[in-house]
Predict the structure of EfeO-type cupredoxin-like domain-containing protein.
Amino acid sequence: MKTILIVTSIVISATIIAIVIFSKDTKNAEDVKAETITSNVLVEDGIQVIQVVSTGGGYSPRTTNAKANIETVLRINSENSYGCERSFRIPQLDINEILPTNGITEIELGSPKAGEEIFGSCSMGMYTFTINFN
Ligand SMILES: [Cu+2]
């Protein structure tokens, strides 16, 4: 009889925990107003945001597929970035930026057309990434 009570209370506790976790997840999903295009691309208030991480090993992801014909911002998130990846360039747009060691840098890319490619690079050209617009 005692065993049954213990098992019953464990089952009830587990159910309550599961309900709490599930309802929390649902709430978080509703709070997000941004539309995710791919894992690192989202649209916030009608502006496409492309998220790239800059860190010791270069830029990530190396290739991004994004939507064409929409106002676009490149958001570089520097994380413990101490190397030459801090000296960032987009040659075709004549952009040269010194990225912080930690922090966010936003660069406006305009509204790229379908088929357009934007190449980001460190100043030496050893670390690169590509954004394809379609
Ligand atoms: Cu470099």
